[in-house]
Task: inverse folding
């Protein structure tokens, strides 16, 4: 059974940093691209970043480019999102999502999400 | 590519048909997925490739379209289908979602 377990969310002040983790179980992690998708309170879904199966290719939404860094450790079956220079508008539930291919495709599994709140 | 969903809210009686629309600002070929999200839960994949049902999805859910116009149809609405439905294109970067259609039970 595929499971994605996010952790690392919490309350952080504007300008602060946070690192999210997503532990993956039940599939061959290094065969699939992975993404972070966020959802602000009461709002829709917003794609944040994707990393290819081997980690060589990374893409970012313009809203986070230069501030967020996606990475993965295939030996630990874990996905990360390093978030720096956080802003109030980054407040959201952050979901880890598995793609159906090594370089992209749709999402077929999602974690339960971790809440990030940016506030003073 | 901007994805536009309509209507924003759809109220349908149990057993009736629900038709949700999604329009892309440019062609996404058939690289279109539909997700269902209930309150407090992550999204769940319903349809990919515009028309292929994901594993375990009931046959009352069907998708159609290609290019820029797509439709999700729930043939006979059940009470458990009350949720927000999102379309998403994965034809190119950035990946984009529609704003969602909330389906309510009358």
Result:
């Amino acid at each position: 059974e595929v499971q994605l377990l996010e952790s690392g969310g919490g309350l952080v002040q504007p300008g602060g940093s946070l690192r999210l983790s997503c532990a993956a179980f039940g599939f061959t992690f290094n065969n699939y691209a992975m993404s972070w998708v966020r959802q602000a309170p009461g709002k829709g879904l917003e794609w944040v970043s994707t990393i290819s199966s081997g980690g060589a290719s990374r893409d970012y939404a313009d809203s986070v480019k230069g501030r967020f860094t996606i990475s993965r450790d295939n030996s630990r079956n874990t996905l990360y999102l390093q978030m720096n220079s956080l802003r109030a508008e980054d407040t959201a539930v952050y979901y880890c999502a598995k793609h159906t291919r090594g370089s992209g495709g749709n999402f077929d599994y999602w974690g339960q999400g971790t809440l990030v709140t940016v506030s003073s | 590519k901007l994805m536009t969903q309509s209507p924003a809210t759809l109220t349908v009686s149990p057993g009736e048909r629900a038709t949700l629309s999604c329009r892309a600002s440019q062609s996404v070929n058939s690289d279109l997925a539909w997700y269902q999200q209930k309150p407090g839960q992550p999204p769940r994949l319903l349809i990919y490739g515009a028309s292929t049902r994901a594993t375990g999805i009931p046959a009352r859910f069907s998708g159609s379209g290609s290019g820029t116009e797509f439709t999700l149809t729930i043939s006979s609405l059940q009470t458990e289908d009350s949720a927000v439905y999102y379309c998403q294109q994965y034809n190119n970067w950035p990946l984009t979602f529609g704003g969602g259609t909330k389906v309510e039970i009358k």
